[in-house]
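INTERNAL AUDIT FORM
Audit reference: QA-55
Scope: verify that the stored structure record matches its stored sequence.
Auditor: D.O.
Record contents follow.
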Amino acid sequence: MKRLRRKASRMMCFLLMFSLLVPLICPRGDVLAAALVRLNKTKASILVGKKVKLKLKGASIRSIQSKDQAIASAAKDGTVTGKKAGKTTIVVTGNNGNRYNCIITVENGLTKNSVYLTKGYDTKVALKGTEIDQILSDHPNVAEVTKKGKASFLISAKKKGSAIINVVGKDKGMYACIVKVESPKLSKTNLTL
C-alpha cells in the first residue's frame, strides 16, 4: 500500500512539473506569430531628398511616424523621405499592435560617387542637402567640370584617363566623384552601297 502511494505521489509530481514546463517549451500560437513579424530594415542611410521603403513582414502597417519630421518624413505606405542631415527613428505600428523601430540616417552627399563616361559625353551630378561652395577637377584635361545652379554640376569627358572631382559644400563638407573616361569604341559593321 505504501508503495502504491509513493508511485502515485511521484506520478502527481511528474505531471505537475510537466504541466509547468509545457508553456515554456511550446509557446502560445499568438506569441509565436508575433515573433515572426519584423521590419525589413532596422537601420538605413539615405541622401537628402532620397527615399527608402519600409515594409512589415508578417503583418500590415497600421501607422507609421517619424520622431523628427524635420529630418525625415514617413508616409502610410512605408516610404521614408530624407529632409535634412541628421538621425531620427521611424516607429511602425503593425496591425498586431506591436511597434517596430528603424533608425534613419539622412546625409548630405553627391548623387553619383563614380562615373564612367565615353570621350565627348557628359553627365549631371547634384549635391543633396547643401549648396556647392567650390568645385574642382584634379585633371581638367580628362574631365572638365562646370557648375550648373546652386547644387549641381556637369562633368564633360575630354580624353581617356581618370580624374577626381572635388566638391566643397556650404556645410564645409568635402565630397568626391571619381571619373573614368574611355575612348569611343566602334564595333565591326558592314556597309553596303
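Auditor finding: record pair retrieved intact. The mean pLDDT is 87.
Action required: none
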